Amino acid sequence: NINECASAPCQNGATCVDGVDGYTCSCAAGFDGTVCDNNINECVSDPCQNGGTCNDGVDGYTCACAAGFSGSDCETNTDEC
Questions:
Q1: Of 5, 8, 14, which Cα lies nearest the Cα of 37?
Q2: Residue 43, helix vs strand vs coil
Q3: Nearest by Cα to 22 from 37, 4, 48
Q4: Among 4, 27, 68, 78, whose CB has the most other CB atoms within 10 angstroms?
Q5: For 56-81, how does the pLDDT look when each residue is reduced to its tens digit (9 = 90+)?
Q6: Could you tell me where the DSSP H helices lie in the chain?
Q7: Is 20 exposed, middle or buried (0-12, 13-18, 19+ CB in 10 A)?
Q8: CA separation for the pair 18, 23 (Å, rounded)
């Protein structure tokens, strides 16, 4: 049995699990794909409210809120006028 993990095929901090005639990668949070080379886009669900702009990160996102809104998802109206 050859150790297919010897070449370190898994990316982005993933753990390689050697098998018989192959390997599998156990991806770190925020990544997927056969070798964990894909950063999951958490902005796909459009989590930012009230015109906020979503910025994808690794295993998370941040929202840049429009004027008059705040909160992690721009859910709070701070404009008292």
A1: 14
A2: helix
A3: 4
A4: 27
A5: 999 999 999 999 999 999 999 997 76
A6: none
A7: exposed
A8: 5
Q: Is 53 in contact with 73 (CB distance < 8 Å)?
A: no
Three-class secondary structure of residue 62 per DSSP: strand
Residue with tokens 């006028």: 81
Check residue 81 and give its pLDDT. 66
Span 25-42, pLDDT tens digits: 999 999 999 999 999 999
Structure pTM?
0.79
Name 45's Cβ contacts closer than 8 Å, sequence gap at least 6. Answer: none
Cβ pair 10, 36 in contact under 8 A: yes
Amino acid letter, residue 76: T
What the block records as the tokens of 73 is 């998802």
The CA distance from 9 to 6, in Å, is 8
